[in-house]
Design brief:
The complex is a heterotrimer of chains A (369), B (581) and C (269). By secondary structure, chain A is an alpha+beta fold. In chain A, 31% of the residues lie in helices and 11% in strands. The radius of gyration of chain A is 40 Å and the shape is flat. Chain B is mainly α and 581 residues long. Helices cover 57% and strands 6% of the residues of chain B. Chain B is built from 19 helices and eight strands. In chain B, helix 3 crosses helix 10, helix 4 packs across helix 5 and helix 5 packs antiparallel against helix 6. By secondary structure, chain C is an all-alpha fold. Among the domains of chain C are: 82 residues, Cytochrome Bc1 Complex, Chain D, domain 2; 88 residues, Cytochrome Bc1 Complex, Chain D, domain 2, CATH 1.10.760. Classes of the chains: A alpha+beta (369), B mainly alpha (581), C mainly alpha (269). Chains in contact: A-B, A-C, B-C. Chains A and B meet through helix 3, strand 1 and helix 6 of A and helix 4, helix 5, helix 7, helix 8 and strand 4 of B.
């Protein structure tokens, strides 16, 4: 039974009587007529000559018929095709020259110039390649005679004899190599193990250990809040319109992306009475509340503030936070609310932080707890 | 002829040194089967070559550095803006290097086409069963290359350090951070410290231009060599058997066709690069970690990960001072892991279920492997839901669907749609099998109506052509698993796994059988007009009043129950000669 | 009459009847629909008080049904007390107001009132309790503004809703941040100033008037910027690019593959 043969194998071939489809004489079109080059009398029947592409040594025997016909089936069509192919190639050549001319002739250095240059270079390149592609395709389809040839497959598995011979060679070599001696074998493996681990060890200095750095930002007591972009400090009366929201950063860090990646903050102005627990009221000033701008999901800046619903929406994965109520999560994959930055005013009346955030900002991590 | 002289001259010189005449002759006469789906892999191959060429061009100008510079180039909107050298050099390529924008766009479009072609090629291989023995290794190589291609693309579009791709990097860092135990270490080691640091762009650069292309080149070479050595599969048809390859020789046919296809690939990406703007980084602006744009998506091949992140419920578990971020960890790794693990194991799982250890060189028609095709469609549905959800804010905005609704729909569809897809596809395949059987038995309608002397009208049919017959009849004969011997199951069939195997085998082998012992006639009692014994001929008098009853009978046969049918089909002369033994 | 009945079986007769019916409905609808424009009183010459009075008249006619007779607000529309002339000018000049009915978000639509009438209305609302005035032409003129700073401010404060060039984006519950292509500099200024619908308020001390001009310059210049790489595909990003990759590129390649491998002669069954 073949079903569970360990090696499987190729099933039996189906018998095709010669001339009935299958391995056909080269040059026979797949239609009904039997056009094409004719056989030379005395040579083997086409079917048998075709079934297996042999070595074709042919020394001393009768000349085997050519495997591929020289001319396509329809010479008239071929002539027409030749002209079309030539036209395609000439168009391609002209486009190629056009490409070089456009490169030399068209400058860049402004958006409009780049537009023109891109259009010219790209169109000429595309036409050049299309010409080649279309021409080559028509060439294959109409200038090359259609053939259907057959080649034999051998089963992928080697013959049992070959396998045995290999096994013998392998075993002989293994014996001769002395690898069977346990002492040298084991010590060899022991020797290579540290060297194999060495590349991993060499990567240690790729980065510092995280330590506790993820738990803190650069906000400190007294750090002024400045608006991002204009870098100006704010007084509460400057930010006095209810429904206002703006991005603020710690003063002095406007060019430090490493610091800003954790310290970016948004402040929102609410009307009296709108802010509720769990928002910490001691950390707000006059209805102005500050939340971390780094989403607690995977760290996108979350600043889509809907004035009407008081929701803060993160555009990346739609985590939604309820701003008047401590930025609790009300939709989306974020698991924790946005940390609130304790703010107050300093002696000069500017908004400042009371301290750093009291919990780690941004995405959760294993050691966060 | 001068050609002969050239052959003797140069060819002779080479042959004197390399003894190539016999090898090259065999190579030139190698037969390549022809079907348009066989060119899908070539799209990927030629896209890769285009990527290498355009990528080399880009490396001559790109600066993989995060050092801040002030921009004073030709894009005046950003004049005076501080940005990384990487971003500035990309602006330079786009606006101050002739052909630069074209090369950048060709590079990016070719990258998209590369992955799209790999996916299409992978689906073709799957649905035709071309991953079966002896091609399992090639399948695994292909999966490895798909993974590398996705990674390569991710790093590639992140190199310019623009706002959009920078957001993607931030998400990558957040995902890495969420990995239990080692997450923070992984993130700090990759980024050289806290995010964003100054190491990530140069590190991604060397991985993108050296490491991954090198590995890809090696894998592609192995993939092609294996395909060469094992010979390509072929579609079922007249004269095609498991023991031959039918087609046209490499020289000159296949060379010409593949060359033409290379030109087409290049022309396609050149056209796209001319008329469809891609990755306009000058509009995104340089990256800064304080800003984000609405509608931020990664390139399409990362979309399914993005969708998974969006639809995940907010599960997090804090215990003993440690945090399990299921809301990040699960969507980042589970769908990816599921799809790739299932794909990698599938050839071996299918072998186990069907017990089929034979070599296969004839492709299956997808309809004839109904369970496999249905599973594939289920997987596509699963992937597709994740993919669409990844674009859900763009979908919500442009199709006027409320934002949260899209996520709710996705959360339900991810479980429901694959099941529905499986069921529907399976039924469609079985229906198509029935249609094939009908064609074989009754022939093709000619549209010619004749009136019989008895007064009734019939439509003449003619038997299908021989080529069509060969295709319609090509069905691998389903094998049965090791049979029980007098009540004791075979060793491979014992225990819970054995029973599972048997049950799965039944499901996989569900099909409309082609044969009864006397030729076709899965109808059981035939049409009553005496043509049950006629194998596809004799069409005239009997086809007029084809009763629905006969068709219905055939429809019941595939449940693996009742009289005359067996789920594994019976063994008679089949078109493809796979009669086992 | 006889002329019509004689042609009642003409092939075009049915179409003519339908067309006539549509014309009748259109005429009746346009007569009853609240366009209010041409038919209402023109803005009178005379001082600001005349303007306010005209505005009050318009308000009572077009707005009070949702916003209350004293603009105090009802269940259908918020209070307009203190919103200022800028808010009125924004809402009316973009056609959002008068609204057709309650919606998740009022869309921009064809403008119902003339500029003079809009200003009258705005003057009336301004007279109730003050608020941001309509900006002057100088305030909104982007000439000479710092586009680079505008880009920086826009990406930090606006792009998360409106997208990196202002192509728009989705909000929750059917709301959306609209595309900024049709917005005039005045409307952009007013929107920042008054925070229409879900948009937050960016008053002059948070984003200064000069910075507002920079943002306006960025938006107007960028939307006018040609796309050197080809069609913009909506400036939405990789979503449309991915669609083009599959439906354009891969599809083209499949067509090429079909052509290259096609056989000659009759189609096979």
């Amino acid at each position: 039974m073949s079903d569970t043969d360990a090696r499987g194998g190729l099933p039996e071939d189906r018998d095709y009587p010669a001339g009935q489809g299958g391995p056909g004489w080269a040059g026979q079109p797949t239609g009904e007529e039997q056009a094409g080059p004719h056989r030379v009398i005395g040579t083997p029947a086409p079917a048998t000559a075709r079934t297996l592409l042999g070595t074709g040594q042919g020394d001393g025997g009768p000349q085997p018929p050519p495997e591929l016909p020289a001319e396509p089936a329809d010479p008239g069509k071929a002539k027409k095709a030749e002209r079309i192919v030539a036209t395609c190639f000439i168009i391609s050549m002209l486009a190629g020259i056009g490409f070089i001319a456009a490169y030399i002739g068209l400058e860049v250095h402004s958006v409009d110039a780049v537009l023109r240059s891109n259009l010219a270079l790209g169109t000429s390149m595309a036409v050049a390649f299309l010409g080649l592609g279309v021409g080559a395709t028509i060439w294959v389809r109409h200038l090359m005679p259609e053939v259907e040839l057959t080649e034999a497959r051998k089963p992928m598995a080697s013959t049992p004899a070959d396998r045995e011979a290999f096994e013998e060679t392998f075993n002989e070599g293994a014996d001769a190599s002395g690898f069977k001696r346990p002492l040298v074998r084991r010590t060899l493996i022991a020797a290579t193990l540290p060297i194999a681990l060495a590349p991993l060890v060499l990567l240690r200095d790729m980065g510092p250990l995280p330590g506790t750095s993820l738990r803190y930002t650069v906000w400190r007591k007294g750090t002024r809040l400045i608006t991002y972009g204009s870098n100006t400090p704010l007084r509460p009366e400057d930010f006095g319109t209810p429904g206002g929201m703006i991005t603020v950063i710690p003063e002095g860090y406007q060019d430090d992306y490493d610091a800003l990646a954790k310290a970016a903050t948004i402040i929102i102005k609410f009307r009296p009475g709108e802010l509720q627990p769990p928002t910490v009221m001691n950390w707000t000033v006059d209805g102005i509340v500050a939340y971390s701008k780094i989403c607690t999901h995977v760290g996108c800046p979350v600043a889509l503030y809907e004035q009407t619903t008081h929701h803060i929406l993160c555009p990346c994965h739609q985590s939604t936070f309820d701003a008047p109520r401590g930025a609790q999560v009300i939709f989306g994959p974020a698991a924790r609310p946005l940390p609130q930055l304790p703010i107050t005013t300093n002696a000069a009346g500017f908004l400042v932080a009371q301290s750093d955030y009291t919990e780690p900002v941004g995405p959760s991590f294993w050691e966060r707890g | 002829m001068s050609v002969d002289r050239a052959l003797e001259g140069v060819g002779g010189a080479l042959d004197d040194r390399f003894r190539g005449a016999k090898g090259f002759r065999t190579l030139f006469r190698k037969i390549f089967p022809d079907h348009w789906t066989f060119l899908l892999g070539e799209i990927a191959l030629y896209s890769f070559i285009i990527l290498l060429l355009t990528g080399t061009f880009l490396t001559f100008w790109f600066q993989p550095s995060m050092t801040e510079v002030v921009y004073h180039g030709s894009f005046t909107h950003l004049d005076g803006v501080r940005m990384s050298e990487a971003y500035a050099s990309t602006l330079n390529i786009s606006f101050d290097v002739r052909g630069g924008l074209l090369m950048r766009q060709i590079h990016h479009w070719a990258a998209d086409l590369f992955v799209a072609a790999i996916l299409a090629h992978m689906l073709r291989i799957f649905f035709t069963g071309a991953y079966r023995k002896p091609r399992e290794v090639n399948w695994l190589l292909g999966l490895a290359m798909l993974t590398l291609a996705m990674l390569e693309g991710l790093f590639g579009y992140s190199l310019p350090d623009d706002l959009l791709s920078g957001a993607g990097l931030r998400i990558t860092e957040g995902v890495m951070q969420s990995v239990p135990l080692v997450g923070t270490y992984l993130a700090f080691f990759l980024f050289g410290g806290a995010y964003p640091g100054s190491q990530i762009i140069p590190r991604m650069y060397i991985i993108h231009v050296l490491l991954i292309p090198g590995i890809l080149l090696a894998l592609i070479t192995a993939h092609l060599f294996i395909m060469f050595h094992q010979k390509h599969t072929q579609m079922p048809g007249k004269g095609r058997t498991e023991k031959n390859v039918v087609g046209a020789p490499l020289y000159p046919y296949f060379m010409a066709k593949t060359g033409a296809f290379f030109f087409f690939t290049f022309a396609a990406v050149a056209l796209a690069a001319t008329f469809a703007q891609i990755n306009p980084i000058w509009l995104y602006g340089p990256y800064n970690p304080v800003a984000i744009s609405a509608g931020s998506q990664p390139d399409f091949y990362m979309g399914f990960l993005e969708g998974a992140l969006r639809m995940m419920p907010p599960w997090e578990w804090n215990v003993a001072g440690h945090t399990f971020s299921f809301n990040v960890f699960i969507p980042a790794f589970v769908p990816l892991g599921l799809i790739f693990t299932a794909a990698a194991l599938w050839p071996f799982l299918e072998q186990w279920i069907t017990g089929d250890k034979r070599e296969h060189h004839i492709n299956d028609r997808p309809r004839n492997a109904a369970t496999r095709t249905a599973l594939g469609m289920g997987a596509i549905a699963f992937y597709g839901v994740l993919w669409l959800e990844g674009a859900n804010d763009v979908v919500a905005d442009h199709l006027d669907i409320p934002l949260y609704t899209t996520t709710r729909i996705a959360q339900v569809a991810i479980f429901v749609l694959p099941v529905v897809a499986y069921i529907v596809t399976k039924r469609i395949c079985l229906g198509l099998q029935r249609k094939d059987l009908h064609l074989l038995e009754h022939g093709v309608e000619t549209g010619i109506i004749r009136q019989l002397p008895s007064g009734e009208f019939i439509e003449e049919t003619r038997p299908v052509t021989e080529e069509a017959r060969a295709v319609l009849e090509s069905r691998p004969e389903p094998l049965s698993l090791p049979p029980a011997e007098s009540d004791v199951p075979a060793p491979a069939m014992r225990g819970a796994t054995g029973r599972l195997r048997e049950r799965l085998n039944e499901v996989v082998n569900e099909s409309v059988p082609l044969t009864e012992s006397d030729g076709y006639g899965g109808h059981g009692n035939g049409h009553g007009n005496g043509h049950a014994a006629e194998v596809g001929h004799g069409a005239e008098a009997e086809h007029a009043a084809v009763p629905a009853a006969g068709e219905r009978e055939a429809g019941h046969g595939d449940e693996g129950g009742g009289g005359g049918y067996s789920a594994t089909g019976s063994v008679t002369d089949q078109g493809d000669g796979q009669s086992g033994s | 009459m006889g002329w019509i009945t004689a042609r009642r079986r003409h092939p075009a007769a049915g179409y003519a009847v339908v067309l006539l019916g549509l014309l009748v409905i259109a005429a009746v609808y346009s007569a009853i629909t609240g366009g209010g424009g041409a038919a209402s009183a023109a803005s009178p010459a005379g001082g600001p008080q005349a303007q306010i009075d005209a505005g009050k008249g318009l308000f009572g006619q077009d707005c009070s049904s949702c916003h209350g007779l004293e603009a105090q607000g009802t269940v259908n529309g918020p209070s307009l007390i203190g919103v200022g002339a800028a808010a009125v000018d924004f809402q009316v000049s973009t056609g959002r107001m008068p609204a057709k009915g309650p919606a998740a978000e009022e869309p921009r639509k064809p403008v119902a009132l003339t500029t003079a009438q809009t200003h009258d209305l705005a003057a009336y609302i301004q007279s109730l309790a003050g608020g941001p005035p309509i900006p002057t032409a100088d305030q909104v003129n982007p000439a000479g503004a710092d586009i680079a700073l505008g880009q920086s401010l826009f990406t930090a404060d606006c792009a998360q809703c409106h997208n990196f060039v202002g192509a728009g984006g989705a909000l929750t519950y059917g709301k959306y941040a609209p595309a900024l292509d049709p917005s005039t500099p005045t409307q952009i200024y007013e929107a920042m100033q008054t925070g229409p619908e879900a948009m937050p308020v960016f008053n002059d001390t948070t984003i200064t008037p000069s910075q507002k001009r920079d943002i306006i310059a960025y938006v107007t210049e960028t939307r006018a910027l040609p796309n050197p790489g080809g069609f913009s595909l909506g400036r939405v990003g990789p979503v449309t690019e991915g669609l083009v990759a599959f439906l354009g590129l891969l599809f083209f390649m499949v067509l090429a593959a079909l052509w290259i491998t096609a056989k000659h002669g009759k189609a096979h069954e």
